[in-house]
Hints:
Elements: H1 3-15, H2 18-25, H3 29-43, H4 59-86, E1 91-97, H5 99-106, H6 110-116, E2 120-126, E3 140-143, E4 153-160, E5 162-167, H7 168-171, E6 180-182, H8 191-200, E7 205-208, H9 212-220, E8 225-229, H10 230-233, E9 239-241, E10 251-257, H11 259-262, H12 265-279
Parallel strand pairs: 1-2, 1-3, 6-7, 6-8
Antiparallel strand pairs: 3-10, 4-10, 5-8, 5-9
Helix pairs in contact: 1-2, 1-3, 1-4, 2-3
Amino acid sequence: MDWEDLRFFLVLSRCGSLSAAARELDVDHATVGRRIAALEATLGLRLIDRLPRSRPLTEDGAAIAAAAERMEALAEDVLRRSRGAALTLSGAVRVSLPPVLATLCVAPRIGTLRRRHPQLKLVLLASPSFAALDRGEADIAIRMSRPEEPDAVARQVGAIRFGLYASRELAERPAEEWDFVGFDASLGRLAQQVWLRKFAGEQRIIFESNDLFAQQTAARAGAGAAVLPSFMGDDDEALVRLPVEPAPPKRDLWLIAYPDLRRSPAVRAVMDFLADCIGAEPRLRP
């Protein structure tokens, strides 16, 4: 059996369609189809039902997918252990974190890490979506929620407080005339976005973006009021904080890693550095 065929099948089982699996794997959908057909031929089993818009698993396919999940977890455990053993105070450590923290909190202090550990390279994976630690997409994560990975270890290192900010011109209007900017549907689950929808109403959110800096720029241009971290909005002279009750929710900050990687000197050093970065900003303290 070609193990790569099994990997393609596992991605398909998660995504539900050839096109979605192809995007995840960064190949064309015909390649995914060939891999699945090859695996079915090797095993002598029909693993998926070929419907016009989806590829649901057969009963045999579901059983094979469950076994493949366990195999993938074991493989990732081997990789994590090897990385934990191999990393010293040199090399690269990858950190998944929200873009606003990468830009305003960590990157300005990178010189401190460089002076402490000149052979260490920090790789910031700044994205509003989560990198999967259990799949080796990052070594450390800073998130505004507890970890979803069952074996990961987390500690609270701070908190982000939010406010509603707008241009001075918009702030002078009556509240019923305010428009708003916020996250798009892909990040609609975020607590601050849920608050905004409830406060503003869907019809008054006239601009959406998955990028917080784009929302800040739109608010500065007078497009509408935006929910921003206080350490971001308070320092922007073009914006004023709007008096609203209740205030947007606070989000705790969690520093997350796997126990085997935490034993690595490089990972421990970066975790200490990240905690220091957050601790150095008074408005990020719990």
